[in-house]
Amino acid sequence: MSVEDPGTDGELGVGMVGYAFMGAAHSHAWRTAPKFFDLPLTPRMRVVAGRDAAAVAAAADRLGWESSTTSWRDLLTRDDVGLVDVCTPGDTHAEIAIAALEAGKHVLCEKPLANSVVEAEAMAAAADTAAERGVLAMVGFTYRRVPAIQLARRLVEEGRIGQVRHVRAQYLQDWLADPQAPLAWRLDKTRAGSGALGDIGAHVIDLAQFVTGESLTGVNGMLETFVHERPRPASLSTLGGVAGEGTGPVTVDDAAVFMGRLSGGGLALFEATRFAWGRRNSIRLEINGSAGSIAFDFEDMNVLHYYDAADDAQTAGFRRIVVTDPSHPYTGNWWPPGHGLGYEHSFTHQVVDLVLDLAAGRQPAPSFADGLAVQRVLDAVERSAAERGAWIDLTPET
Ligand code: SOE
Questions:
Q1: What residue ranges define each of the domains in the chain, with the CATH number in brackets?
Q2: Cβ-based neighbours of 336, under 8 Å, separated by 6 or more
Q3: Atom of ligand 1 at shortest range from CA of 238
Q4: 275 alpha carbon to ligand 1 midpoint, in Å?
Q5: Which of 89, 144, 212, 325 has the most CB atoms lying inside 10 A of its own CB?
Q6: CB-based contact 266:156 (threshold 8 Å)
Q7: Residue 385 contacts by C-beta under 8 Å, 6 or more apart in sequence?
Q8: What ipTM is given for this predicted complex?
Q9: Is the beta carbon of 237 within 6 A of some atom in ligand 1?
Q10: Model confidence pLDDT, tens digit, residues 53-102
Q11: Closest ligand 1 atom to Cα of 25
């Protein structure tokens, strides 16, 4: 396959690296996208790579891949692979993504883009060079593709809430609130880069910037680790697992609280924690503008709340919009109005948009440059926390 041609004979051969939670979500998306959307290239799930031969073969079978390999480098030499999908922990993103781009493969890479700004810069530079040859890269901030979030973006873009004054963005989970929850890789700084901050805080940073169309110009914040030692896992499931013998250190933050200033002059407040008992996967975004407000919670993900300050005072109030009309983004390809979408659909929409962009030779969004911008915010929050909450400016060159 030549680099100018993203697919052969109307197909896009995909090779995926990693097959755990994110790998399963991405596999579902590659399988499902061509069944519900009319795509200019048909994704072919050629090969999945992982270190354990038996486990990766079983995953290939379960998730619908044609073959498996224990070396991700095999993907780079295969002519029937046009895109490499990176679903590994953050410590391997840079190496795999850069090698794939250099080999002429398009890349989809899980978030956060990398474990450090240095790595993210190298990835963004590799993506720029590759783009000159028609080889394209995208980072997977999937929540952008929730229809209610797309509608929120449109309302802000159309000026329906006026100038953005406040952003309140929270990502709340509780899978680590139990101190006996085992030591998953997401608690190891060398593998994950950071804790709640990078794993889930990255999502709300991206959402805040995406929905407002603005960028953070500076931040300050606090990080905290509540449980410093956890049982080593006997087995790991999607996020939790079963505690085994012995304990090991938690080397990342358990929670992050930070605030920032937006390029349009608004103020933003962020919280990311995996210690919010009862909040399983709650992503809350509230934006107050000069002419209205919008509010979203992923735990009710098919709904967007919209307040229009121009409404008659007698009847003014938040409008509960069920974002399932065929006129809403993506929804017309799924179920009749009111039947609703779930977590997995945003991954499918990600694949759909990526394939459309590849076929058109267009840069997909979010790009590696967007991923780098989020990485700079993560880094600034860490630096601020290390300096007892000092303000950190985020000028483009920092
Ligand atoms: C774990 O907190 C996690 O799986 C994140 O890594 C994902 O990005 C998010 O979609 C769900 O939660």
A1: 11-143 (3.40.50.720), 147-300+302-341+375-386 (3.30.360.10)
A2: none
A3: 4
A4: 14
A5: 212
A6: no
A7: 221, 222, 223, 253, 256
A8: 0.96
A9: no
A10: 999 999 999 999 999 999 999 999 999 999 999 999 999 999 999 999 99
A11: 10
Q: Which two tokens stand for residue 361?
A: 């030779």
How far does residue 145's CA lie from ligand 1's centre (Å)? Answer: 15
Report how far ligand 1's centroid is from the alpha carbon of 171 (Å). Answer: 10
- Give yes or no for residue 239 CB within 6 A of ligand 1: yes
The one-letter code for the residue type at 226 is F
d(CA 149, CA 320): 14
Give the nearest ligand 1 atom to 142 CA. 10
Q: Is the pTM of this model over 0.80?
A: yes
